[in-house]
Amino acid sequence: MNIIGLGQCGCNIAKCFEQYPQYDVYYINTEKQKSKNFFLIPEQKTHEEYEKNCPDLSKFFKKIKEDVLFVLGGSGALSGVCLRILEYLKHCNISIVYIKPEMALLSSVGTLHERVVYNILQEYTRSGVLKDMHIFSNSELEKFIPDITILNQHDRLNEVISFSLHMMNVFNNTKPVISTTSEFSDIARIGAMGSFDIEENLENFYFSLDNVSEKCYYYAIPEKQLKEDTKLFRKIKNQMKEKTEDGEIKVSYMIHITEHQQILCYILARSSQIQK
Q: What is the tens place of the pLDDT at every residue in 1-33?
């Protein structure tokens, strides 16, 4: 998979993927950084100027094919160039990773930028131009990360986001031990990820998604526990039965073997509705 980070926020998250051999990482920003796959965008004054004066990226993207994970936040002026950049990638399967800031802390201009980009990308996703869009909220993430400080907050948030996305890719590209899942429906393209506490049966979403229509639970379980724990499968089945009782949300699950020493559980929710 190709990871493309736009702006400082997107580039910082994209950089976390360099630790995994499965990804080619690209950076686009107005501040130069050391990387062979870096493109410097000349600094502009406004959102509109970035869109109008987008440079030619065809050479920069010439090796990119198939799957693309495009990571960005929408509040900066540089986000105005995102649609122009995506035009160069229209031959690819593009998934958007959108980082939603704390709106109360944005300036009036930043709020306007964020609303424009946030809504346009959702409309493009819903129409099928983009494969899907996963939204992460910084304020929601901070609730579930206990060791955040003033100095490490961005690093910790970026680590959780990148690791969650990586684990989803692992789940979707390895054969599960057991699976009841099928592909998400074509109309449910806007999503939110989260962690799932199997002991407490508690869902911790990294963005509060409205009008959820589908959920998939991903269990990553050590091989030893899969072999020896005689109560685990019944617990998982009971949890899934409980979550399907109201019948309003389509629920599925996967069980994978993991090399980690403890159970990891993730959840992905999807909606067909624009998030306001």
A: 999 999 999 999 999 999 999 999 999 999 998
- Each residue's pLDDT tens digit, 49-88: 999 999 999 999 999 999 999 999 999 999 999 999 999 9
For residue 228, count other CB atoms closer than 10 A to its CB.
9
| One domain, residues 13 and 45 | yes
DSSP state of 201: T
> What are the Cα distances from residue 40, in Å, to 29, 31, 53, 55, 136?
6, 7, 13, 10, 26
DSSP 59: T
For residue 35 the two structure tokens come to 């990387």
Number of domains comprising the chain: 2
For residue 173, is it within any domain? Answer: no
153-172 vs 7-16: helix crossing angle, rounded to 10: 60
For residues 187 and 189, give the distance between their C-alpha atoms in angstroms, rounded to a whole number. 6
Q: Is the pLDDT of residue 181 over 80?
A: no
Rounded distance between C-alpha atoms, residue 67 and residue 172, angstroms: 13
Residue type, 69: L
Tokens of 66: 């198939």
Domain that includes residue 239, residue range: 187-271
The residues, ordered by sequence, that sit 6+ positions from 102 with a Cβ below 8 Å of its Cβ are: 138, 139
Domain at 217, CATH number = 3.30.1330.20
Q: Indicate whether 163 and 201 sit together in one domain.
A: no
Pick the last residue of a domain from 123, 138, 168: 168
Instruction: Answer yes or no: do 42 and 116 share one domain.
Output: yes
Q: In this structure, what CATH number is given to the domain that contains residue 58?
A: 3.40.50.1440
Residue 248 to residues 62, 162, 212, 215, Cα–Cα distance (Å): 44, 30, 9, 11
Residue 86 carries which side chain, given as an amino acid letter? L
